[in-house]
Amino acid sequence: MIYLDYNATAPLADEVVQSITEALTSAWGNPSSSHEAGRRAKELISESRSNVAACIGADPSNIVFTSGGSESNNWVIQSILSCHNGGEPNAKPHVVTSTVEHDSVLVPLDGLAQRGFIELTKVAIDKSSGEINPQDVIKEIKASTKLVTIMLANNETGTIMPIKEIVSCARHMEAKFNHKLFIHTDAAQAIGKIPIDVVDLDVDFLTIAGHKFYGPRTGALYMKCPSLEPLIYGGGQERGLRAGTENTPMIVGLGMAAKLVKENLDVYAENMRVTRDYLEDKLKEVFGDNVTFNCKSPNRLPNTCNFSFIGHGLKGYKVVKMAKSFSCSTGSACHASKCQPSKVLLNFHIKEENAANALRISTGRTTSVSDIDLVLAELRSI
After folding, report:
1. CA 291 to CA 308: how far, in whole Å?
2. Could you write out the three-class secondary structure of 121-188?
């Protein structure tokens, strides 16, 4: 079976498996203990923190380990809004986000808005560019705005959002209203596929999810300054922000995955791009006008191809069920059990019939042209 759903999750790299295995046997001590076993675990956690930081151009002191991307996203949202009011007496804090965010951003924000705790604005995708228009974000910022959260890259279409431009404009608004405006980006889908430099982006928070770049199902949160309320109170681990004895083996695995990205990103991304582009060229060649592509922006991840066959009876989930030689997604893997069109694709202004027919193929580090040829042969038969 050819695996082509790397945007959903990636297998552990061999080096990651080895690092986790070694940590399980050699770094089992409590990192808070002062004896040799504890010091060994603490050293490996420190090394892993440095590796994660280097992967995104950060200082190690700015990295806090979490259970994954969803925890990181929720932590930023809940903490910012509990620590910082709307800037005026009795004002609700205002949040600006987009209509195509991951559910771990949209669901908590919607819940807070429905309970009357925040005012929420969702910026739509610009029809002409296929991206978030920075000016559409900026015009929504006002004196009570406390948080702007826009993903770095979309998991379904692969669209890369203009975060640097959004942040630059938002900083001008911050000066205009003379209060701190926190900016968060969910980079879960981007790490391991495109270069990321948090200093260049100038975001306050950035979400990291290990399993998207051949690491374990754990994660981290970059924070420019310690402006979050502690997620868990207790023993003071993670600078007092997330108490609890650290999961040393998984942290070590995350650090190794980040190190591999730092050292090999160009090679990884090039293979993803070559195989993805080959797939798209062959789809056009074989199916012509009977196939349409659902990412309208030229700025996209190198591995993601979201496309639809034109016509009734060609729904994506049916094609996936019939496929015997490969596995892929019908949109976001989080919604793969449902048969209605992806709300994200609809919010990218994809026609409902095309959204229902969508397939998302996401290539990986070891995907080959011969793999793509086998996929195309089966798609012809289906």
Report:
1. 6
2. EEECCCCCCCCCCHHHHHCCCCCCEEEEECCCECCCCCEECCHHHHHHHHHHHHHHHCCCCEEEEECC
d(CA 107, CA 86): 21
Q: What is the pLDDT of residues 185-226, one digit of tens each?
A: 999 999 999 999 999 999 999 999 999 999 999 999 999 987
CATH number of the domain residue 47 falls in: 3.40.640.10
Tokens of 75: 């932590």
Number of Cβ within 10 Å of residue 145's Cβ equals: 23
Question: Are both 199 and 277 inside the same structural domain?
Answer: no
Counting every residue written for the chain, the total comes to 382
Compute the distance between CA of residue 172 and CA of residue 159 in angstroms, rounded to an integer.
25
- Expressed as residue numbers, the domain containing 315 is 2-9+265-381
Question: Which of 226, 261, 296 marks a domain boundary?
Answer: 261
pLDDT at residue 88, rounded to an integer: 57
Higher pLDDT, 230 or 368: 368
Tell me the pairing of strands 145-149 and 182-186. parallel
Please say whether the beta carbons of 106 and 97 come within 8 A: yes
Q: Give the catalytic positions in this structure.
A: 334
